[in-house]
Design goal:
The chain is of the alpha+beta class. The protein has 3 domains: 53 residues, Roll (Structural Genomics Hypothetical 15.5 Kd Protein In mrcA-pckA Intergenic Region, Chain A), CATH 3.10.290.10; 86 residues, Alpha-Beta Plaits (2-Layer Sandwich), CATH 3.30.70; 74 residues, Alpha-Beta Plaits. 24% of the residues lie in helices and 29% in strands. The strands form 4 sheets. Strands 7, 8, 9, 10, 13, 14, 15, 16 and 17 form a 9-stranded mixed beta sheet that branches. Strands 3-2-5-6 form a 4-stranded antiparallel beta sheet. Strand 5 and strand 6 form a beta hairpin. Helix 1 crosses helix 2. The longest helix has 10 residues. The protein is elongated and about 65 Å long. The two termini are 23 Å apart.
Length: 233
């Protein structure tokens, strides 16, 4: 095995995310061959690596990707001490972590996996791949509102990328974006004079929520996974 950064190794083994690995390193909770690990350290997989007192053994793991219908109130964090965290909510038998985030007040589709490379590819694909939302607002949807959302609005210091917006009902619209800024949909709607009452993510790239019950998860089909990986090449 070629030497790789410790944080990337821990992601590949399904131990934690890169960010969480760096936090654990800084907290002195990761050891390599009995010595405290340092940020940027590289490993080859033959070392004795201990995280939070548990030994990590390098192994090739089968890739797992699941789709989860997140309820309102579930928090997208891998911190096991956080009440309502998504890992406890999903209760998957192996270590997995969420890809991106969906804010606590929103529901709908989020992907989870043990494949660190897949996580990094999706997160690096900002601006290239679609996420579709069904948005209920407190004012009637207008043609001007849809046009403004599609053309881009100014939030968090810069314009949003072009989007697709479609009226579904008097107070409901579909909004498809290719970014993932903090509470982006809510902020975009505020700019056009609307307050979000309900927000559900229906699709991530080729993966659709469909009729997956709220609070339940399912494995991606082989076709879905193949198409997803092809979109990321």
């Amino acid at each position: 095995m070629e030497n790789i950064r410790l944080n990337k190794f821990l992601v590949a083994q399904g131990v934690c995310s890169r960010r969480e690995a760096d936090r654990l390193i800084e907290a002195g909770k990761i050891f390599i061959n009995g010595k405290p690990a340092t940020l940027g350290a590289k490993v080859g997989g033959t070392e004795e690596i201990v995280v939070n007192g548990k030994k990590v053994t390098a192994q090739k793991r089968k890739s797992i990707i699941i789709a989860y219908n997140k309820p309102v109130g579930v928090i997208c964090t891998s911190d096991p001490s956080a009440p309502g965290n998504i890992i406890d909510a999903v209760n998957f038998p192996e270590r997995i972590f969420h890809i991106g985030r969906l804010d606590v007040a929103s529901s709908g589709l989020i992907l989870l996996t043990n494949d660190g490379d897949l996580v990094n590819k999706i997160l690096r694909s900002e601006g290239r791949h679609e996420k579709e939302y069904i948005v209920s607002i407190d004012v009637p949807v207008t043609r001007d509102m849809l046009s403004e959302l599609e053309g881009g609005v100014y939030i968090l210091g810069r314009m949003t990328l072009p989007a697709r917006a479609q009226k579904i009902d008097t107070y409901v619209l579909s909004l498809t974006i290719t970014e993932g800024r903090n509470q982006q949909i809510r902020r975009m709607c505020e700019v056009v004079g609307a307050h979000v009452v309900d927000l559900t993510r229906e699709r991530i790239m080729n993966i659709e929520l469909g009729d997956l019950p709220l609070g339940q998860w399912r494995y991606l089909t082989p076709t879905e996974e193949k198409e997803l990986r092809a979109l990321l090449t």
